[in-house]
Amino acid sequence: MFAILLQISAIVTVSTVHATDSVSPSSHTMLLNDGNRIPILSLGTVGKTNMADKLVKPAVIEAIEAGYRQIDTAAAYKNEEYIGEAIVDVINRGIVTREELWITTKLPCKVGTREEVLLALRNSLKKLKIDYVDLILIHSPDNLYHLPEYDYLNVWKGLEDAKKLNLARSIGVSNFNNTHINRILANSDIIPATNEIEVNPTYTNLELVAYCQSLNITVLSYAPFGFMVPRPFSLDPIESTFEEPILIQLAQKYGKLPCQVVIRYLIDRGTIPIPKSVNATRIHSNMDIFDFKLTTEEIILINELNQDVKVYHFHGKHLLAFVEYYGF
């Protein structure tokens, strides 16, 4: 019964957001709690760092030419400079203006104090070849490098400094739970605009998504396909496929692919999915999701695929496995 009530509550929250025109159908953007509008689909760029120089720039160019306006990266991905080259390319060719792009990045996990934030952000700006980022996040609340002075609250205060200096339009967090967020709310001047967390049909993350949305903190959904795509680094993979009957049924109903149904599902839950691809066909396919919308009942049916199993774990051997795989 609790699970059903939680799903209904989440749908009601999203419906209320839509009713107040937080989502703009004409421009495919969502209104953040700081007044900025963020594109409701992002290109993910995480990948093996030793292949970034060959794959990331052409993928970002292809995506922007296809209509993507948000690019998601991080200092840890070691690809900001290639994204910067892509940004220069599309702006110089008149494909977009800087103002039409939304660039999201994340602080290095080795940043543990307020004083280190601006230095790290300016380093990212230099690599990205831009004067400001649209959104910068604390990558994780955890002290992954066992830094003696680490405190994510102090790091957050550094992001507040960055926003006040107009080096970042919006500031947010990633991989934060409700306890982490509550500590920021109780001790800070600025509410996080976003929380980037794992959300997909087999890890629906209903409680945390609903909690963030209740505070008007926008959720960005990474790993949107969960285990429906290969995860070679996973130590505990689960069986999951795009051939799930409900996905096939909805794909046939709307004349779409199952992967497009999954992206639409995340958008219709009021989150911003971050599908990652370097394949031109899939980049275009992932963008073709703005001409249909799932019903409340269909969202709940997809929620039933939940197995409560994450792709990414930030502790122990699981963390080491994907860090070594990607080369972070």
TrEMBL record:
GO MF annotation: an example: oxidoreductase activity, acting on the CH-OH group of donors, NAD or NADP as acceptor
One Pfam family in the UniProt entry: Aldo_ket_red
SUPFAM superfamilies in the record: NAD(P)-linked oxidoreductase
Keywords annotated in UniProt: Oxidoreductase, Signal
Residues the UniProt record annotates as site (Lowers pKa of active site Tyr): 106
PROSITE patterns given in the database record: ALDOKETO_REDUCTASE_2, ALDOKETO_REDUCTASE_3
Family annotation (InterPro entries): AKR (IPR020471), Aldo/ket_reductase_CS (IPR018170), NAD(P)_OxRdtase_dom_sf (IPR036812), NADP_OxRdtase_dom (IPR023210)
Domain NADP-dependent oxidoreductase, residue spans: 43-306
Residues that hold substrate according to the record: 139
Signal peptide coordinates: 1-19
Superkingdom as given in the UniProt entry: Eukaryota
Protein name according to UniProt: NADP-dependent oxidoreductase domain-containing protein
Source species: Euphydryas editha (Edith's checkerspot)
